[in-house]
Amino acid sequence: MTEAARIRSVANQFAFAGEFARAERWGSGHIQESYCVECNADGAPRRYLLQRINQAVFHDVPALMENIRRVTEHVAEHVKGQPDAERRVLRLVATHDRRLWHEEPGGACWRAYQMIQGTWSFEAVESPEQAFEAARAFGEFQAMLADLPPPRLAETIPDFHNTPKRLAALEQTVAQDAVGRVASAQVEIEFALARRELAAVLVQGGLPERIVHNDTKLSNVLFDEASGRALCVIDLDTVMPGMAPCDFGDMARTATCSAAEDERDLTKVAMQLPLFEALLRGYVSAASGFLTHGETAVLGAAGKVITYEQGIRFLTDYLAGDRYYRVHREGQNLDRCRTQFALLASMEHQEAAMERLVRAICV
């Protein structure tokens, strides 16, 4: 079966409005395989996001999809009756037999969402105002989930932001050197091991457990095309229990960097302080109602910790043979690691300024 025929067959399992017309690959994520499906309904096109769930990463599909169902339904209740309520939350599309996902005979699992019309997403921050909006959206998302009733959400990736375990995994991978790449990454390995104290900053800080997004890059926020206001947080696979500052740290990691994630010219890599300030102001404007003093106190450090952790993850995957993150060229994960470590070095250089902003804004 061709790819086109397969996508059409899978799409036809879902209760889309109208008949299947076409599909095209969608997005730039590292993990999931996504398609934009267009259907014709009474002469008007309707668009849906069809995704193959990466079961090498997400082993428990029922738990994953139950998390997403609970989260989207809860957020929908929070925004009900507010302006643009229909566009402020992802909405799952069930299969014809009312399941949240479709499983092919070979075991591959697929899910579908309604496309949110009249929105844009961005790969890189274009202005402090945009950074503020994205951070406000993620802070609001955390705030809306603060009163999600029990039971506890499943951990779709256990120990996702357990930085000490990420460091231990790196050390084990270095010791094994299964694909013979350790010699080509000695500088990066030494950089990581020299900063091992960073690994414990958040996990040993006694921070309360929250429901967090865990992948707060700019492309996971949809912006209204007309107003530029952030509307909806997307990519909910890693929404699960965690620490609120980790989400802010990942924003600082992804939104303040002046270069692409796999930039080879490291002289282009720097943390942009005005964007950090905009993120901090946006996030606190929405999340201050539930954050503790202990959580706000580590927001500056969180950027360093999560940047360090992500660099370790890219390095570990490179040394293990590129088994987790999709790569499009040889050495791409090592380039991604180098970019993270260059960004971390820039954050270290500006640490005093970052902490002054935290003290001034988080009062």
Tell me what you see in this structure:
With 363 residues, this protein is an alpha+beta fold. It has 2 domains: 3-116, Phosphorylase Kinase, domain 1 (2-Layer Sandwich); 128-361, Aminoglycoside phosphotransferase (APH), C-terminal lobe (Aminoglycoside 3'-phosphotransferase, Chain: A, domain 2). Helices cover 42% and strands 13% of the residues. The chain is built from 11 helices and 10 strands. The protein has helices at 3-11, 61-79, 128-145, 163-176, 186-194, 244-255, 273-287, 293-297, 299-320, 332-349, 351-361; strands at residues 19-25, 33-41, 44-52, 102-103, 109-114, 119-120, 210-212, 221-224, 230-233, 240-242. The strands form 3 sheets. A 5-stranded antiparallel beta sheet has the order 1-2-3-5-4, with helices on one face. The longest helix has 22 residues, at 299-320. It is globular. The mean pLDDT is 96.
Number of domains: 2
Give the biggest beta sheet.
5 strands, antiparallel
Rounded to the nearest angstrom, the radius of gyration is 21 Å
CATH architectural name of the largest domain: Alpha-Beta Complex
Class from secondary-structure proportions: alpha+beta
- Tally of helical segments: 11
* Stretches with pLDDT under 50, minimum 5 residues: none
What shape does the CA trace take?
globular
H/E topology pattern: HEEEHEEEHHHEEEEHHHHHH
What is the first-to-last residue Cα distance?
Answer: 60 Å
Helix coverage percent = 40-55%
The portion of residues forming beta strands comes to: 5-15%
